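Session log. Operator J.P. requested a structure for one protein chain; no other inputs attached. Running the standard single-chain path with token output.
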Amino acid sequence: RMINMDSEAEGSLWISCAGGLSAVSHIPVQRVAAEGEKLEVKVSGLMGGHSGSEIDKKRANANIVMGRFLYALKQEADYEIISYEGGQKDNAITREAICEILVAREDVEAVKASAAKAEDGLREEYAGTDGNITVQITEEGHAETDVLHPTSREKVLFYLVQIPFGIQKMSGSIEGLVETSINPGILMLNEEECKIVSSVRSSIDSAKDALTAKVCYLSEFLGGDCVTEGDYPAWEYRKESKLRDIMVDSYKELFGDGPEVKAIHAGLECGLFYEKIEGLDAVSFGPTMKDIHTTEEVLSISSTARMWDYLVKVLENIKA
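Structure written below.
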């Protein structure tokens, strides 16, 4: 038996989760010397969140938003890309992205107008989830610097526009469960390459493999490559679970009502143990936490106290 405490919703027992991996794309780039007005484009004000448990909340990803803006900007002004950085964790929905571009002096106002238009549209599009999205332009003065070669710039833009994000498929057997998703959580541009790290999740191995192959094919199409890291298995649902029965009964004994027993899309450690230990009976629970993997993450102290009492009750009933 295994009791996992990596859940973040009091009143829920988690009994299955998705597997996942990190797909790391490397797109080679070349640079050329250029001169012009240096502008910083900053996408911020997004909610972010955990790319597993909160991917169903339809929140925006700053890397995707930046890609959309840069692609649309091509119609309004000529520009070159100097640098780009977005996100720090592939399993966190990207909240902020910064791109430095070079433009002619006469195009500065067009870039600002395009940013204002994009911001208005995005706030309307994401009202209720990311209504405070900002697309901010900051002038950084005249500069002589290396920028992406036009071909390399187009490769980066093509990747950003084409990389999938969010829910790819809902479960056909468990209502309300996200089956397959992807989150391009990290993008880093240096002198030689653009590196993108995406979290791929699915409760179905074939779907996870197919989505990973799609990301890798996109990378290879652009002259790059793609490797996978941290592959972890799904935690499969058990129809019969003595531990689950004990934990449900213990919850009722302590709190009156029964807990919600559910499968989730986030990844838990249980799958790793489940794969190695034949016949493992596992259940996950935990106190209430909110906005995990963001700077607003909070843990309820009162919930922690109740879940401690619950754990003690479960252990007492197992021993009995």
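Operator note: The helical segments are 62-73, 108-125, 150-162, 205-221, 242-255, 270-276, 301-319.
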